[in-house]
Amino acid sequence: MAKHGKKYLEAAKLIDSEATYEAAEAIELVKKAATAKFDESIEVAVRLGVDPRKQDQAVRGVVVLPHGTGKTKRVLVFAKGEKVKEAEAAGADFVGDADMINKIQQGWFEFDVCVATPDMMAEVGKLGRILGGKGLMPNPKAGTVTFDVAKAVQEIKAGKIEYRLDKAGQIHAPIGKASFDAEKLNENLKALLDALVRAKPSTAKGIYLRNIAVSSTMGPGARVNAANYR
Question: Which of 97, 138, 165, 172 could form a disulfide with 59 if both were Cys (CB 3.0 to 4.6 A apart)?
Fold first, then answer.
């Protein structure tokens, strides 16, 4: 078993590991248990009733959190021509084509999200191993391969996140910071869970939202009553 420090053990006393809480109460407890010196992220883990080995049950998508994540993402856009100006006007941090591809090949990674226009994907594809290994490859399903680069950049800056089922059948995603009001965190959580429900595969059987837990970066987790979202 992992060993925890005194701060974690003290914070853990606030939360009953065997209990299931309503979302608002779980979030309040997790905020109280976030005692680190930095503004901890608040994250949610959702276990879904799907088989991650089956392609037709791979849950993946995007959602714009109404109150953002508390982190401003650095956006790189692969584009050329008029789309360069469009991306820059929308607030992209970096814009380019071959020059940016060369920088990444040389080990540059000072960005959090990549967006690409479809006509750039043949070139961006050369970075498949590099970007794919870091989960940064532009993807149509995530809305990051598009000619509407302005909308893509604006949504990312506004708090759009991507969620993806892992091999254990879980979704992990940030819903804000410990400094957020509990109400805002609750609304972000609801937005994510609503998106997951909409993304339920037609082949999924039985209970879909099985378990939900919220936690801070350094603190213990609190289980949330999943029945309210089914």
Answer: 165
Estimate to the nearest angstrom the gap between the alpha carbon of 157 and the chain centroid.
Answer: 13
For 166-207, write each residue's pLDDT tens digit: 999 999 999 999 999 999 999 999 999 999 999 999 999 999
Which residues does residue 213 pair with via DSSP β-bridges, in sequence order? 45, 223
Structure tokens at 84: 């360069």
In the three-class reduction of DSSP (H, G, I as helix; E, B as strand; rest coil), residue 34 is classed as coil
- Enter the tokens of residue 68: 């953002």
Q: What is the pTM of this model?
A: 0.83
φ/ψ (deg, to 5) at 58: -80, 110
Q: How many other CB atoms are there within 10 angstroms of residue 22's CB atom? A: 12
Query: How many CB atoms are located within 10 Å of the residue 5 CB?
Result: 9
C-alpha torsion angle, residues 29, 32, 33, 36 (rounded to 10): 150
* 106-160 residue pLDDT tens: 999 999 999 999 999 999 999 999 999 998 999 998 899 999 999 999 999 999 9
Q: 67 in the Ramachandran plot: left (φ > 0), alpha (ψ -120 to 50) or beta?
A: alpha
Q: Is 146 exposed, middle or buried (0-12, 13-18, 19+ CB in 10 A)?
A: middle
CA 129/CA 77 separation, integer angstroms:
18
